[in-house]
Design goal:
By secondary structure, this protein is of the alpha/beta class. It has 13 helices and twelve strands. The strands form three sheets. Strands 1-2-9-6-5-3-4 form a seven-stranded mixed sheet, with helices on both faces. A three-stranded antiparallel sheet has the order 10-11-12.
Length: 334
């Protein structure tokens, strides 16, 4: 299946197909001399599958985890690209989860003022959400994604077979983003998670989630309005991640708790709580209110004394609200 994404920066294809990783070199057009980026959490079987298709290319492998999404790793990758004489005609190919995609995309966005990159996501989180849309970034000073750029990929290859090596925690955490997509835009997608056999529909879950994000990104590429809906659960979610030290909880786990924190509708909150329980995801954290408020004040979505929060009063219809710092401090169910 090919899903086309149209943006002002560039148009690109998402190829969603089991086994596509094994023939990436046939699918990726004119990569020049590609520079491959991955982390040591990506199983060797997938790294070798890609590397063997580009035997003359270097694969830079960094340590797995959110802690590696920093300026130090970013600079190290750029130095390696310079040492390999990567040119403007070459392509960065990212293989891995959200951290790999964010880092590789930011390196591609800034190296020689921007070169092509192809994203090959291997986790549920990255396949469902982070591999498309053009957001690239690193963390700094304990704040997630505060240094980055909008840089759309040239192509995205999604191979659901790579999910077979994910542990249950990683798989379920990534699915939190699909739950989010259903709540803000696709009621049918949310209903899949209310059934016991949701894992039998993983390809459909990925496809429907991508279509939700694609449509929103095409309408609002640089997040001036509608795209902010994709941040449902993320304002508190990012604060939880930072509060518990980056990497202690997975991104999807914090987004799950963040959605529960802001929801006002009791019926939707009850239904969401059941879905999250079925996915073994947290429904809340015992976090320090003042520290959470302070972290949210540093969030890139904050505007001085207010922050834009996504709310859902009807499943499939997310909307934006402006919350004061007092509203943030009170929270909903915090």
């Amino acid at each position: 299946m090919v899903i086309q994404v149209h943006t002002r920066q560039r148009d690109y294809d998402i190829i969603l197909e089991r086994g596509v990783l094994s023939r990436a070199s046939q699918v990726i057009a004119n990569p020049g001399h590609p520079f491959l980026i991955s982390d040591d959490g990506v199983p060797e079987v997938w790294r070798n599958m890609l590397k063997n298709q580009y035997p003359d290319s270097r694969m830079y492998v960094f340590r797995q985890g959110e802690g590696s999404k920093c300026m130090e790793t970013y600079q190290s990758i750029l130095a390696a690209m310079l040492a390999e004489h990567v040119s403007r005609n070459d392509t960065v190919i990212a293989l891995g989860g959200g951290v790999v995609g964010d880092l590789a995309g930011f390196c591609a966005a800034t190296y020689m003022r921007g070169i092509r990159y192809v994203n090959i996501p291997t986790t549920s989180l990255s396949q469902i959400d982070s591999s498309i849309g053009g957001k690239t970034a690193v963390d700094m000073c304990g704040i997630k994604n505060c240094v980055g750029a909008f840089w759309q990929p040239s192509q995205v290859l999604i191979d659901p077979d790579t999910l077979s090596t994910l542990d249950d925690r990683q798989l379920h955490a990534g699915l939190a983003e699909a739950v989010k997509a259903g709540l803000i835009r696709d009621p049918g997608l949310f209903r899949i998670f209310e059934q016991d056999d949701y894992l039998e529909h993983i390809d459909e879950i990925i496809e429907r989630s991508l279509i939700v994000k694609k449509q929103i990104v095409e309408n609002d590429e640089r997040e001036s309005g509608e795209r902010k809906l994709l941040n449902f659960g993320h304002t508190y979610g990012h604060a939880y991640e930072s509060f518990y030290e980056l990497g202690a909880y997975l991104h999807g786990e914090c987004v799950a708790a963040g959605m529960m924190t802001v929801l006002k509708n009791k019926d939707i909150k009850e239904r969401l709580g059941k879905v999250l329980a079925g996915l073994h995801l947290p429904v809340g954290f015992d976090a320090d209110r003042e520290k959470i408020c302070e972290l949210i004040r540093s969030d890139k979505k904050a505007d001085h004394d207010t922050v834009t929060i996504v709310q859902v009063d009807e499943i499939g219809r997310g909307h934006l609200e402006s919350w004061s710092q007092d509203d943030i401090r009170k929270g909903i169910g915090l």
